[in-house]
Amino acid sequence: MESDGRMAPAVESILAAARDRGGGGDRVAVEARSLPAAFERAEADGRVPVVAEVKPTSPTADGERTDDPVELARQMVDGGAAALSVLTEPDHFGGSAETLEAVREAVDVPVLRKDFILHEAQLDVVEADVILLIVRFLDEEGTDDLADLLAAARERGFQVLVEAHTADEVERAVDAGADIVGVNNRDLAKLEVDLATFPRAAAAAPEGVTLIAESGIGSPDDVRRMRTAGADALLVGSAIMDHGGDSDVTENTRRLTAAETTDADTQT
Fold it and tell me: Containing domain of residue 194, as a range?
């Protein structure tokens, strides 16, 4: 069922904070590590391409992870992550530009800056290989145009992951020039997750677009379901971070990146 477009209160709070944050100052110029090439290397190595997310906490998480984020990032790469996503949103996710900078220096895989970018000036905060633009957030009054922001990001050297939730948003992302599209299984109107979202929305993407399934992926069975539906890669946060717990992040990552080479689903 399509939502009515209204945001959950937690998301409205995130947007309000994002509107108040300015840019970082000097124009950023990036020599980006290729995200599609990282996915290809994972496939060639027999691993499911997973973007593992360094996320201390979130409005939907039970608890937080206080480990050194750089060490967590290294453990994710040791577990086979093809790329990393690092939160830089400080108010609701405990992220920072400094954390992303430290993680990117410590690993050799592409690093996505996960934040809520509404204006071009907000691109100029920190060097990353990929930045996130969210179609639904950029539909809001007072934000920059998606196509303009996408072009501005590429001028700085960023690759761009454009996030959608519906088939219509996927079409808008592609029309704006996106060639890497994420489909978020979480409905921002209610913060509810439905893994049937990815197959419905991804069907609107033309051949040649790199598709990433996001949110709600917690088991090898979920991984196989998304891959069968056409996901080139998966973005996974909470199932790897284990907020409020202390499970092995390397093993959490490995059980998902190895999902297509084993029939064992040892989810606990």
Answer: 45-257
Q: Output the tens digit of pLDDT for each of the chain's 268 residues.
A: 344 557 788 888 888 888 888 777 799 999 999 999 999 999 999 999 999 999 876 555 555 667 899 999 999 999 999 999 999 988 888 889 999 999 999 999 999 999 999 999 999 999 999 999 999 999 777 789 999 999 999 999 999 999 999 999 999 999 999 999 999 999 988 889 999 999 999 999 999 999 999 999 999 999 999 999 999 999 999 899 874 567 899 999 999 999 998 654 444 3
Q: Tell me if 63 is assigned to some domain.
A: yes
Query: Residue 199: which CATH number?
Result: 3.20.20.70
pTM reported for the whole predicted model: 0.91
Q: What positions carry a catalytic annotation?
A: 53, 55, 114, 163, 184, 214-215
| 153: nearest Cα among 168, 140, 171, 134 | 134
Q: With respect to residue 5, please indicate whether it lies within any of the assigned structural domains.
A: no
C-alpha dihedral, 147 to 14 to 130 to 111, nearest 10°? 180
Q: Is residue 8 part of a domain?
A: no
